[in-house]
Write a structure and sequence with these properties.
This protein has about 110 residues and is α+β, with helices and mostly antiparallel strands. It is about 40% helix and about 25% strand. This is YjbR protein.
């Protein structure tokens, strides 16, 4: 997968926008960042700590906590070179759901998202 795949998947989600976070592209829902594209060619998504532990434990070649305090807050690196479409979509959608307001999440879920 590529950063362009991340961008496409993220921007397909309701109310998602692309902005910039510390000079790097990021994706937001109602101005809350749910994913970023750092310069290393991977993606970073905002998971809960439980989601992060599960995903990193199950697929350590694909998901890794971000170093330092950000990783302890659930920010998780997605290694795009090893990701497939389903895994990337799952991670990005999960991050979007974590940051989206309840009313938007409910509308998305009712629409089959």
């Amino acid at each position: 997968m590529t950063p362009e795949n991340v961008r496409r998947i993220a921007l397909e989600l309701p109310a998602a926008t692309e902005k910039s976070h510390f000079g790097k592209p990021d994706f937001r829902v109602r101005d809350r960042v749910f994913a970023t594209l750092p310069e290393d060619g991977n993606a970073v998504v905002k998971l809960t700590r439980d989601q992060q532990e599960m995903m990193c434990g199950r697929e350590p070649a694909l998901f890794q906590p971000v170093d330092g305090g950000w990783g302890k807050q659930g920010w998780t690196r997605v290694i795009l070179a090893t990701a497939d479409e389903a895994a990337l979509r799952s991670a990005v959608v999960t991050a979007w759901r974590n940051m989206a307001p309840v009313t938007l999440r409910k509308a998305f879920d009712l629409a089959g998202g």
